[in-house]
Amino acid sequence: ISKGVSVYIGKHRRSLIKLTLDPSLGTEEIRNTLYSKLERVIQTMSFTEEAITAALSDRISTDRFNKDDFENSRRAFKSSLGYEITFTLLNPDPKSHDLNWNISSASEQYIQPFLDKLQPVANFSVDSQILYYAILGVNPRFVKETSSYILNAHNLPHVINPVEARLGSSAASLYPVLNFLLYVPEYFHSPLYIHDKDGKRVTSNAFHSPRWGGIMVYNVDYGNPNDLKFPVHVDIDMVKVMEVFLTQLRLLLGISKVYVSESYQMENPGNEGLTDWELDKLLWTRAVENIATVTTTLTSLAQLLDQIGNIVINDNVASEVYNSVSSVQIALSELEAGRLENAFKASKEAITSSEKAFFDPSLLHLLYFPDDQKFAVYIPLFLPMAVPILLSLVKIAKDYRLSKKEPNKTD
């Protein structure tokens, strides 16, 4: 352990605590000091009340959150069986820039080890594209003192919409899409810097949008203006870019940055970008989130059955409901035993079964077209036709009665 470090947290569910105790302390005081240290380490590496609150963020009052917890809960994508990751290079000025980015090699080196580590959580697919003449929806402001252009924090939400219309990835996807955009500004808007809410330059020159993705601005060093020849060939520094995108990817998947005191030292997770105990926290959070989702789905299905008296439940729906409840029970028991991967798998099976039951074709027409809605639709159509028919029947009945009352004429 380095000098001044009292706690070392490794990447494989291990930690080392160094205590320097006063010889005059009693046994009880030593025990309390040790327990206090252990409690802080366990809270760092394990699950806390804040993690539970974040997992159930869609189902509890926002009054339970502090500002940071609320932002964290709304930033991450919700649990899904799969995710699609799209890297996009935006070249708004191809006449000025000849951009070369080795995204395939960079993704294989920096992103794939991270996704391999997350294999128990979900399936991931990665693709990339280059968009030419894709401009931002906001004109950056020129700062004369620094001879640069800036994008303020309040302008950033307006940057995404014009670009998103050209991405075209989310429309055909069955799973949530995480978009990561690398924007190289035009020559006449360079250099371009992002400023935060306090007006300070963002070190990474990037920002992320909750449950959508992230954008990084990459400025080109043009060197001596007198020696410029367009288009300028640019070899993009993929190490710098992937460091930013990997950090954003962690946040969007719900892996929050851990803040510890200066006396703590944390082992670098390496190329995987994820420690074992961070994976444990993610599995636990996703399992709890899945169980809550299943509970909501089955409760909605039960309410639907109570509202519709003439509904018929076939064997397939009953079987899926039974499997879902059984999987939830297994997930809860596995969570209690600390077998997080098994618990998460059971929770995924529970979600699949509950959704199959809820969206079964035999229930869909009752779900979207209940009986009261059918009456509301068809009565205006049939009532105008029914009134003349009923009046005609009444007239026929009256004529028949009158004919019965008239005496028969005899010669």
UniProtKB/TrEMBL annotation:
Cellular component GO terms, alphabetical: GPI-anchor transamidase complex
Top-level taxon of the source organism: Eukaryota
InterPro entries associated with the record: PtdIno-glycan_biosynth_class_S
Pfam families tied to this protein: PIG-S
Record's subcellular location: Endoplasmic reticulum membrane
Pathway participation: Glycolipid biosynthesis; glycosylphosphatidylinositol-anchor biosynthesis
Membrane topology: Multi-pass membrane protein
Keyword tags: Endoplasmic reticulum, Glycoprotein, GPI-anchor biosynthesis, Membrane, Transmembrane, Transmembrane helix
UniProt family annotation: Belongs to the PIGS family.
Protein name as catalogued: Phosphatidylinositol glycan anchor biosynthesis class S
Species this chain originates from: Engystomops pustulosus
Lineage start: Eukaryota, Metazoa, Chordata, Craniata, Vertebrata
